[in-house]
């Protein structure tokens, strides 16, 4: 039985490692999307033009897509974890620290998904407000041009103000999920 448990533990941990690699790529892409979206929205709301050497400042005159995607997405690869929960095999992971890190990472990542669902209505309102000024999320437009269009419609300002806290929270969750992923990878590497 002990040999079987050890094999099962190794198999499950290898699957978790493989999924972490996929999660890393997805997290990086989602963090980039949310960061870019924050640059654009914070640039819109700023009374003072951004420092030309800052990322938003460099984007000031450059035609860019308003947003690169409808919502920043992070698809959590958690099949191995879900299997461990459903079958009770999480208990075959002998290292308490490792088991705790596995649970911590997947809980943190799942919280991010909950936050994204809460942000969706505000994002939808923002996209609708932008549509009122003839801007779609995939339009290429400079930040200066976007500012001039937004100035004519206060509805966009309201939608941006409502969406910003959720985007900031999404950014924080992506950072936390990324940190939890790195911690889990470190514990997994130590356990090899």
SSE layout:
Layout (H helix, E strand, L loop, with lengths): L1 H44 L9 H4 L5 E2 L13 H9 L8 H37 L7 E2 L1 H9 L2 H38 L1
Antiparallel strand pairs: 1-2
Helix pairs in contact: 1-3, 1-6, 4-6
Give a summary of the structure in a few sentences.
The protein contains 6 helices and 2 strands; from the N terminus they run ααβααβαα. It has 192 residues and is an all-alpha fold.
Describe this structure in words.
This protein is mostly helical. Helices cover 73% and strands 2% of the residues. It has a two-stranded antiparallel ribbon with strand order 1-2. Helix 1 packs across helix 3, helix 1 runs antiparallel to helix 6 and helix 4 runs antiparallel to helix 6. The chain is elongated, with a radius of gyration of 21 Å. 24% of the residues are buried.
Summary keywords:
6 helices; mainly alpha; two-stranded antiparallel sheet; 192 residues
What general outline do the C-alpha atoms trace? elongated
- Beta-strand content estimate: under 5%
The number of helices is: 6
Poorly predicted parts? none
Biggest pleated sheet: 2 strands, antiparallel
Strand adjacency order, main sheet: 1-2
End-to-end Cα distance: 21 Å
Measured as a percent range, the helix fraction is over 70%
Overall pLDDT confidence = 81
List the helices and strands in order: HHEHHEHH
Kindly name the structural category.
Answer: mainly alpha
Number of strands: 2
Question: What's the Cα radius of gyration?
Answer: 21 Å
């Amino acid at each position: 039985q002990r040999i079987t448990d050890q094999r099962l533990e190794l198999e499950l941990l290898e699957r978790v490692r493989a999924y972490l690699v996929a999660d890393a790529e997805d997290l990086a892409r989602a963090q980039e999307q949310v960061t870019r979206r924050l640059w654009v929205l914070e640039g819109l709301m700023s009374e003072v033009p951004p420092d030309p050497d800052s990322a938003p400042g460099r984007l000031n005159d450059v035609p860019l897509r308003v947003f690169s995607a409808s919502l920043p997405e992070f698809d959590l690869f958690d099949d191995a974890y879900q299997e461990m929960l459903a079958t009770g095999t999480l208990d075959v992971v002998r290292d308490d620290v490792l088991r705790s890190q596995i649970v911590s990472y997947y809980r943190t990542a799942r919280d991010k998904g909950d936050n994204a669902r809460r942000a969706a209505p505000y994002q939808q309102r923002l996209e609708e407000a932008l549509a009122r000024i003839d801007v779609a999320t995939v339009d290429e437009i400079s930040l200066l041009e976007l500012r001039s269009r937004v100035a004519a419609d206060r509805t966009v300002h309201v939608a941006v103000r409502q969406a910003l806290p959720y985007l900031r929270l999404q950014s924080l969750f992506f950072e936390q999920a990324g940190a939890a992923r790195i911690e889990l990878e470190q514990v997994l590497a130590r356990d090899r």
